[in-house]
Amino acid sequence: MSTPPIAAKIIELRAQLKTQFPEAHAESRFRQMEEPPVVPKFGLPCLDQHAVPPGSVVEIVGPRWSCGSGLLLAGVLEAALRQGGYAALVDGRDAFDPQSLPADLLQRLLWVRCRKVEQVTRCADLLLRDGNLPLVIADLQLNAARDLQRVPGSTWFRLRALAESRGACFFAFTPCQTVAGVRLRLLVDQRLGLDALDRPRLDLVRSLQAMTMIERHRGLDSTAEARLAKAG
Amino acid sequence: MFTALVIPDFALQVASCHHGEMRDRPVALLEESPGSAVIIQRGKAPVLQCNAAARMCGVASGMTASQAQARCPHVHLIYRDPAAERAAQMKLLDLAASHTPDYEDTAPGVVCMDWLGLRDMQRRACGLAGEMLAELRGRGLEAKFALAPNPDLAVLAAHLADPTLLLPEAPEDVRAFLAPLPVEVLMPDEEKLALLRLWGVRTLGALTALKRAEIARRLGRDGAELWDHAAGRRQRLLQLVRPQPIFSQSIEFDHPVQQTEPLLFLCRRFLETLCARLEGAWLVAREIRLRLDFENLHDPLQPKLHERALRIAEPCRDVDLLFRLVQTHLEGVTAPSSVTAMTLGLEPVRPNTHQTQLFEGSLRDPNRFAETLAQLEAALGPERVGIPLPATTHEPGVIALEPFEEKEAGEPVAGTRREPLMLGLPVRCFRPPRQARVVFSKGRPVHLDAGEIQGRVLDDRGPWLLSGHWWEPGAWSRREWDVHLSDGTLCKLVFEHGEWSLEGVWG
What we know:
The complex is a heterodimer.
Chain A: H1 5-20, H2 45-48, E1 57-61, H3 69-82, E2 87-91, E3 109-113, H4 117-130, E4 135-139, H5 145-149, H6 153-166, E5 169-174, E6 184-188, H7 201-206, E7 210-215, H8 222-231
Parallel strand pairs in A: 1-5, 1-6, 2-3, 2-4, 4-5
Antiparallel strand pairs in A: 6-7
Helix pairs in contact in A: 4-6
Chain B: E1 2-6, H1 10-16, E2 27-30, E3 47-50, H2 52-56, H3 65-71, E4 76-78, H4 82-97, E5 103-107, E6 110-114, H5 121-138, E7 144-148, H6 151-160, E8 164-166, H7 174-178, H8 190-198, H9 204-209, H10 212-230, E9 248-257, H11 260-280, E10 284-294, E11 305-316, H12 319-331, E12 339-349, H13 366-380, E13 385-388, E14 401-402, E15 427-435, E16 437-441, E17 444-450, E18 453-468, E19 476-485, E20 490-496, E21 499-506
Parallel strand pairs in B: 2-4, 7-8
Antiparallel strand pairs in B: 1-6, 1-7, 2-3, 5-6, 9-12, 10-11, 10-12, 13-14, 15-21, 16-17, 17-18, 18-19, 19-20, 20-21
Helix pairs in contact in B: 1-4, 11-12, 12-13
């Protein structure tokens, strides 16, 4: 059974790198004793079915105005704050409504009110670099897509590196596919009606559905792994 | 050797020192304030102190004003003046400080001085006493002076002085010497004083006539100390008054400064000095207070100064950390003109002694986080970063932020607690709201045009009528509609001040 040429090249490249730089690939003798990182549970079925360990970058794409991404954002915030920790919301267009969260949880939320995408990336950089907050959320849903596309890919990779090194989760809510190098990208496109305004928030959040656009585990992304598995 | 300076009936003397005409009249001081010479209107205030003329008429401390007036119709009743008492006490301490560096603020109207190491104290004591008493007499206060081998004996002897009493050695029979003094000179607490009066013990002689062991059994350790004090046996160290260090430095520039670098250089120098003072006093800094005075360009709209208090998350005296906070803040300040003066102060506080949680607290490094907050504020402005406060008004759109402060950590907020059930979708607000044009048909909205968001209305709810503050000039009133557009957008429309606006989108 032959391996697809691209995947084979990747495997060969990895082997060469391992030979060339053995110390970078050395397994720590303690690594086997280490427990796997605790994956936080958000109480959101659409999110909890994916492993989102600390240090992950997750992008939630909401292609429409009322697609449910705000609901997912509120759900993630509420779940994180209820666990007793702090969280930061870097608000791209100063759109957050404090009444969307229970009042007792607001004391643990740092609200950063930005107006431009550049401010969001700068503030997210500062907060991730700080390393004190386990969850940083950037809400770019109301920002213009053309402004988001002007953000260089290196910026997102830098934020990812900071999140991984500091062990913080970084969530980005965007109107279109924007963030490069994410661990998980979900598309939320729920059809909601005015009757949703009367339903309990918990029911709405639990009924949210999201499509997985990309999911990376350690090493190759899930699509490449699937291809390899099929070929091999 | 110790000397004591005592002003008898201190509160009364302070209240009446500026009223020379009251000197020969019966005067009684009431426990109440305000004012220093106000004829009483109420009859129930207790008499705190009274002069000799009032005592001769039968007025005594503890009786009510009406009782005092019944006994002595001509008695002048005056109020206490706490501010004047504090000022007089400061002057008394200044007087002691001008003669010796070791003195104690023993009680209101009482100061005790230590002359350890001073030779020929006995010879100098008379001259010293005369000097001090004359100084106080010039301020309208009559005092008494005493010299004794221990401070408590000096204070008690001062009460017996007329007006000076020198005891280079303790009397052979100290108890008999102090016997005539009233128990009030021991300054016991109210409860013990009432108990002693109940027992009929009114003088030190009556107290020391009782057995020490019996007093200790009934009044405890405090009672035993009281007995020792009355017998002149108590030995103690003075609690010396030391000048409070000042944790602030300022400078006025000969030439106005236009750049940040010189200010930062001076801030660093100031911080090094102030942190050294903190270290000497075993204190840490909780807050940095920075003030910049600007050059006056005769523009009434121009701010004259910039004042800011920078809170330190975890109080410390680390110069580098404090300097980084000041530097981050200064780099974000836009000065309207050149800086003519600068003041930098630290608010001192005792170091935190509680043990932090063993397993990971809320913030790993609060000071680092404080720096990050300062950088965020410098990038966005102080009103753009903080903790959102719950609304205290029904008026929509009112937002308040408070500076971030670490709360007590860590316990998960139980979902089973009684909390209001969250309903419905969250809203993303447009700030400011977007102008909208709404077309109505038969009283229902049928089309919305708000620029980017427009379309036919499939479903609507409303109108919701809200209003508030109708009793004030800032009354508000609005109509809200929730509409579902053909493209699936759920909009929050508001009609206010005769215009439609799109305030946010649900979901």
